[in-house]
Design a protein that fits this description.
Aminopeptidase, single chain, binds coenzyme A, alpha+beta
């Protein structure tokens, strides 16, 4: 293993965005999870990159969310360069983020994704309809992880943005621009 995981720095943002675009394409903006990211920044202390020979190999970010009246985190996007997949980078990025989230005092993490993959780091399906995303999601892909005992089991209600950092128009432009 020659890659190294470190916190994402401001100078990484452009290459992280390019990697996410390469992995998910423009269609990602239509997903429910993106409604929770509109106008809200990721948790900087929980954004990690995998670097090898000076090049970005993978990235993970977490967004702050509220579920009902509880604070939680939304994991993703998680993205690994296609030529570098299957080397453990994705799992290692998530493990680092999960460890730091626990240390930071977060009680739970939620995500929308493939259960067989995310189960490798402890995620499990939430009972159907316990939490409601702002748009359609496949209930079998709604997963959660407790960082404090039982925390994911009590999550219930609407998933929403806990605050808005940068108000944007419907077309994504900052309010007041142009
Ligand atoms: C999903 C992704 C992050 C995995 O990264 P990775 O670095 O290859 O993952 P790892 O090397 O840590 O783990 C690889 C293992 O997970 C398995 N795996 C990968 N994606 C999987 C999935 N969607 N479902 C089930 N298993 C999966 C692989 O088969 C491999 O299994 P093995 O260890 O038994 O060979 C990467 O494929 C990717 O960037 N995909 C495109 C973006 C995406 O779908 N992101 C996830 C949604 S947020």
């Amino acid at each position: 293993m020659a890659w190294n995981i470190r916190q994402e720095l401001p100078g990484d943002a452009a290459s992280v965005e390019a990697l996410v675009e390469e992995c998910f394409g423009p269609g990602r903006y239509a997903k429910s999870a993106y409604r929770l990211r509109d106008g809200v920044g990721p948790v900087a202390a929980l954004s990690f990159v995998a670097i090898e020979e000076g090049a970005l190999r993978g990235s993970v970010r977490f967004w702050p969310v509220a579920v009902g009246s509880e604070k939680s985190l939304l994991l993703g996007p998680l993205a690994v360069k296609s030529a570098e997949r299957g080397r453990g980078i994705g799992i290692a990025l998530m493990e680092r983020g999960i460890e730091e989230a626990r240390k930071s005092g977060f009680a739970s993490i939620i995500l929308v994704g493939d259960e067989p993959y995310y189960a490798r780091v402890g995620f499990a399906r939430l009972s159907a309809k316990r939490i409601q995303f702002p748009g359609p999601v496949d209930p079998s892909r709604v997963l959660a992880l407790s960082l404090q005992p039982g925390a994911a089991l009590t999550l219930a209600g609407a998933v929403r943005r806990p605050h808005i950092d940068n108000p944007v128009c419907a077309d994504g432009a900052p309010l007041g621009a142009g």
